[in-house]
Amino acid sequence: MFCYLFRRSYIEGTAYKADPKSDQAKLKVKFYVPPFLPIIPVVGDYWVLFLDEEYQYALIGQPSRKYLWILCRQTHMDEEIYEMLVEKAKEVGYDVSKLRKTTQTDPPPEGEGPQDTKGIWWIKSIFGK
Length: 129
Fold this sequence. Notes:
Order of helices and strands: EEEEEHH
Pfam families: Lipocalin_2
Radius of gyration: 17 Å
Strand order of the largest sheet: 1-2-3-4-5
InterPro entries: Calycin, Lipocalin_Blc-like_dom, Lipocln_cytosolic_FA-bd_dom
Organism: Vitis vinifera (Grape)
GO biological process, one term: response to stress
Structural class: alpha+beta
Low-confidence stretches: 1-8
CATH superfamily of the domain at 14-95: Calycin beta-barrel core domain
Strand content: 25-35%
Number of helices: 2
CATH architecture of the domain at 14-95: Beta Barrel
Number of strands: 5
Protein name: Lipocalin/cytosolic fatty-acid binding domain-containing protein
C-alpha cells in the first residue's frame, strides 16, 4: 500500500463508471503520481452509497470498507443529516468509529485557487516543506 502525504488542498483526478453497462453508482477514479508528470496512474474504487435528491451531501465509500467519506457542498452540515449518514454507513458494514469531522472554512472566490500548476508543491511535500 502506498501513502502519499501532500500539503495541498486538492489533487485532480478523472472519474468514470466502473461498469458502463450498470446503473449502479460505482466509480473508478484515476490520479497520476506525481501530478506534474503523469506517468504513474493510481486508480481507486469509489462507491456512492447515498446521495440526497438535491445533490447537497453524499456518502462515499470504497468496497473494502476501509475508507469512507461524508461530503457536503456547504461548509456546515446539520447534525441530524450527519447522524443519518453515519447510520447508513453502519448499515452497510463500515466502521464509523474511525470517522473524523474536519473543520471547514469558506472556499476562496472563483479563480483564487492554488497558483502552482507545475507540481513544485509535490516535490516540496516530499521534503516536508
